[in-house]
Design goal:
The complex is a heterodimer of chains A (156) and B (784). Chain A has 156 residues and is α+β, with helices and mostly antiparallel strands. Chain A contains five helices and five strands. In chain A, strands 2-1-5-3-4 form a five-stranded mixed β-sheet, sandwiched between helices. Classes of the chains: A alpha+beta (156), B alpha+beta (784).
Chain lengths: 156, 784
């Protein structure tokens, strides 16, 4: 069975017909060819597929496209450009908050949501807020620093 | 123009594509007309295959082909080889079971692939894979390492399930030292089995062009050149010049992407057989089942001392688990990367190590970040700590009494290695200051007033990196050379393209190598592009593992850059009408000594390609040079890690309140990147010490087959790290670098366990020291 879904991705209206068991991340990666959102596991544990749906971070591997009907989705490709980076993107680079880069898009999307949700962010709240995203390279030290750094810029 | 030189914290050139979602990982690549593969894997650990029926799967919707081990065998593909021949004490060669690309008549671990379904979509391939009917006749599995040698043989060609019985050092002298010593400390310990878990799962696309007969394999490899050699020379997939391997952006490796596996090999073979591109991306469950695992030793150690705590002899006996087959480098890990490190930072005069490697019905075990060296550092730094407690010596003092001193270098250990340089006390002293060891007693008292137990633990590790002098490695059984290739192409406008056989999958080579070459030429880092990961563009190279990239690959680039400068001087001498001996190159300019005449690097580059004013009768045009660098020795990074923990006695939860690491990596090109490598290594080491444990049940079923069961460190499991550096440059490579990629994972586990046992007042606790284990240890200690 196929279904047709209408949603907005990175500001553009999208209509796609796909099998009903298609997940949001499959739609993003395979149908829309937005390969910045990654898949690192099959149990919704790693967070590499994190995107924003209606402004909140979701793990796109466990959202069926039907659940995304009518929603406003933002992926890593939609938050900034090479010439006009989002403060979170800049902070990850400046603080060396990434190594292999595979978890980075999901981590950045989760971190932006965290900063938007929390008024006061200290090291511990940042660490707890990133609990849903694995990084195997950085030991999180510089990611935590990057998020703190970006939070200050985002609240300016 | 911004010049950035060695030692500066240059932000990474590779970051922009990763933070904007423009990375290019293997699974991001799609080829026109590609099919998808799904592997049929054994659900049992040890079985004969009575029959295999593919008819239902082959007829399912969208299925193009179902290929089996029988067809692999008919095409005469070789065994997936283990590249290092280790000999037993009696001189016999290691026993190596045939490692088929797909199983034919026998299953040896859960997850072993028996067939591959190729279909128009991944879903069709996956659905059809469930229609492949295999009749398995189960055989009792061999799982436990300690009893593997007395269990029934898994393979007739591996009697006693024993691959080799290896030894190193002087047995008689060591036994004598132990029998005559004033004090002997004895421990037994386990080095827990780990699953590497790079966040990008393995993936590949094989693309065979039936017209040109070229095979291109895009794959998640740390070493595409080495993978090509193995697939062509040993497995005999295709002629070497007809196979191109491209390892694009790779999402972490930690050793697990060094090896040549069944899946990528089967994909390449299937693409040639079917004449279509085929894609496979592992699901995480497959990574757990079929990526090579790490560690998995059981060990007994004896350390003999005089009455002042000077080490006299060390005897180590280890059983190392190889899993079901010998993976690409597996045999070298518990031998030449382990036994050779057992002197540590100490002047122990007599050392003898015996290692029995065994096969079991579990996934193959091979190099994982540190590879042998964490196992060596763990046993050594655990027994030194326990010895200090038994001798009533401060754990710092016992180490100081036994350190190899700066004046002792070069230092020949009793276990084959000759250390070139180091200053172990300098690292320890700096770490003690950073960790405020002097204030520890007060902090412990304060924690006790809150009802918590506080402990401090030390680890002074050494590692051998920069693998390795090819002739030494060859004499020890290595099947390949261990040099690295590098090419420095100066373009006509004076920008530079650097090609390296090393591969970067998080290490930041695109920045570090650019910094190295830019500083040689006095040009901007922005004017240097680093190319890696494609055998179609590069000379044969050995790739990235064993913290070798800068020490070996960087040295090749340094030598190639020197050749460019030497040629540039000849061009400049001609243009400036001077003798070449009078030309100096500094700050990006070729200058006639004691004159104001000079040519810029860019002017010389242009002249080399537009050779109008050029000594063509003596010199070829162009400015591009290569070097192959073969290391003269291993490099020996070393350092001191100090861990301070606080434990809640009600719950057993361990809180790492402070972690200090001071490392000597020799010359550092980019401290920001080096610190990042240390952070990541420590995180994996703390993961091993506190959280991670691969568990098989007694039938060989993997119980920790997902992130729900295998505990990976998350952001709130870890502290910030205090990282410092000392520097004694490597004496035998042109960069002076020793390597930094694995140190954190080597040094940290014993520091954590030493801190926990110190807090609890017990001698031993096994890794991972979960809150349950810690709580139980407290109950036992309290009840004793």
């Amino acid at each position: 069975m196929s279904i047709t879904v209408n949603l907005i991705v990175n500001g553009k209206a999208v209509t796609q017909t796909c099998p009903e068991n298609t997940t949001l991340v499959e739609l993003i990666r395979e149908k829309l060819q937005l390969s910045g959102t990654h898949v690192g596991c099959d149990t919704s544990q790693c967070g590499a597929c994190t995107v924003h749906m209606n402004g909140r971070a979701v793990k796109a591997c466990t959202v069926l496209v039907a659940q995304a009907e009518g929603s406003d989705v933002t992926t890593i490709e939609g938050i900034g450009t090479a010439d006009d980076l989002h403060p979170m993107q800049s902070a990850f680079k400046e603080c060396h908050g990434l190594q292999c880069g595979f978890c980075t898009p999901g981590m950045i999307m989760a971190a932006i949501d965290l900063v938007n949700r929390e008024n006061e962010l200290d090291e511990q709240t940042i660490r707890e807020g990133l609990e849903g995203n694995f990084c195997r390279c950085t030991g999180y030290h510089n990611i935590v620093e990057a998020v703190g750094n970006a939070a200050a810029r985002m609240k300016e | 123009m911004v010049q950035q030189s060695i030692g500066e914290r240059v932000l990474r050139k590779e970051d922009l594509r990763f933070i904007t979602g423009k990375g290019n990982y293997t699974d991001d690549i799609n080829l026109p007309g590609q099919a998808y593969a799904c592997f049929v894997r054994s659900p049992v650990a040890h079985a004969s295959i009575n029959s295999l029926d593919i008819s239902a799967a082959a007829g399912a919707d969208g299925v193009i082909a179902v290929l089996t081990g029988q067809q692999v065998a008919e095409d005469n593909l070789g065994s997936l080889p283990c590249g290092w021949m280790v000999h037993s004490k009696d001189g016999s060669e290691m026993k190596q079971p045939f490692h088929p690309v797909l199983a034919t008549d026998k299953i040896n671990y859960v997850g072993e692939p028996v067939a591959v379904v190729v279909a128009e979509t991944y879903l069709a391939a996956k659905n059809a894979s469930e229609l492949v009917e295999v009749d398995y006749e189960e055989i009792e599995a061999v799982v436990d390492i300690s009893s593997a040698q007395s269990a029934a043989d898994i393979y007739p060609e591996v009697p006693g399930n024993t691959v080799y019985q290896w030894e190193l050092g002087e047995k008689a002298d060591t036994e004598k030292a132990i029998s005559q010593a004033a004090h002997v400390t004895r421990i037994s310990l386990t080095n827990n089995r780990l699953i590497p878990n790079a966040i990008e799962p393995r993936a590949a696309i094989a693309d065979y062009n039936t017209g040109t007969q070229d095979l291109t394999l895009y794959t998640t490899s740390q070493n595409p050149g080495l993978a090509r050699l193995i697939l062509t020379a040993f497995v005999q997939i295709a002629p070497e010049h007809k196979l191109r391997i491209i390892a694009p952006d790779v999402g972490g490796g930690f050793g697990s992407k060094i090896f040549v596996y069944s899946e990528e090999t089967a994909l390449a073979w299937a693409s040639m057989k079917l004449g279509i591109p085929i894609k496979w991306t592992a699901e995480r469950s497959e990574s757990f089942l079929a990526d090579a695992h790490g560690r998995d030793h059981v060990t007994e150690v004896e350390l003999a001392m005089d009455d002042e705590g000077h080490f006299l002899g060390l005897h180590v006996k280890t059983i190392a688990n190889m899993g079901a087959y010998l993976s690409t480098f597996a045999s070298a890990v518990p031998t030449y990367l382990y036994g050779t490190l057992l002197a540590g930072q100490y002047k122990t005069p007599n050392i003898y190590v015996e290692v029995d490697a065994v096969v079991t019905n579990t996934a193959p075990v091979d190099a994982y970040r540190g590879a042998g060296r964490p196992e060596a550092a763990y046993l050594l730094e655990r027994i030194v700590e326990i010895a200090a407690r038994e001798m009533n010596l401060d754990p710092v003092e016992i180490r100081r009494r036994n350190f190899i001193q700066p004046a002792d270098f070069p230092y020949q250990t009793p276990v084959a290695l000759e250390y070139d340089s180091g200053d172990y006390e300098a690292s320890l002293n700096k770490a003690l200051e950073m960790a405020d060891y002097a204030g520890f007693a007060e902090r412990k008292e304060e924690a006790a007033s809150r009802g918590n137990k506080r402990g401090i633990g030390f680890s002074c590790y050494i590692e051998a990196c920069g693998l390795a002098p090819s002739q030494v490695a060859g004499s020890l059984g290595a099947g390949v050379g261990l040099w690295e290739s590098g090419e420095v192409r100066v373009n006509p406008t004076g920008t530079v393209t650097v090609l390296t056989g090393s591969h970067s999958h998080g290490q930041g080579h695109e920045t570090t190598f650019a910094q190295l070459v830019a500083s040689k030429f006095g040009i901007s880092v922005d004017d240097v592009e680093v190319v890696h990961g494609d055998t179609g563009k590069l000379d044969f190279g050995m790739g990235t593992y064993g913290s070798r990239s800068l020490a070996v690959g960087g040295s090749a680039l340094s030598k190639a850059a020197d050749k460019v400068i030497a040629k540039g001087k000849k061009i400049a001498a001609h243009m400036l009408e001077s003798d070449v001996e009078n030309i100096d190159f500094e700050d990006g300019e070729f200058k006639v000594r004691e004159s104001n005449q000079s040519k810029t690097f860019q002017e010389i580059a242009f002249a080399a390609y537009v050779p109008h004013d050029y000594p063509l009768e003596e010199l070829e045009p162009g400015l591009s040079e290569k070097a192959f660098y073969d290391p003269e020795n291993f490099t020996f990074p070393a350092g001191a890690h100090i861990c301070e923990v606080e434990i809640d006695p009600d719950t057993g939860v361990v809180d790492i309140v402070k972690f200090t690491a001071v490392d000597d990596f020799g010359t550092i090109i980019n401290p920001m990147i080096v610190e990042g490598q240390v952070h990541g290594g420590i995180a994996q080491g703390i993961g091993q010490a506190l959280l991670e444990q691969c568990v098989y049940d007694e039938t060989g079923q993997l119980l920790t087959g997902s992130y729900m069961d295998y505990c990976m460190p998350r952001a709130d499991d870890l502290p910030n790290f205090d990282v410092g550096m000392t520097c004694t440059p490597c004496t035998h490579n042109p960069v002076g670098a020793k390597g930094c990629g694995e140190a954190g994972a080597i040094g940290s586990p014993p520091a954590v366990i030493n801190a926990i046992t110190d807090a609890l007042g017990v001698m031993e606790i096994e890794m991972p020291a979960t809150s349950e284990r810690v709580w139980r240890a407290m109950q036992q200690a309290g009840g004793a």
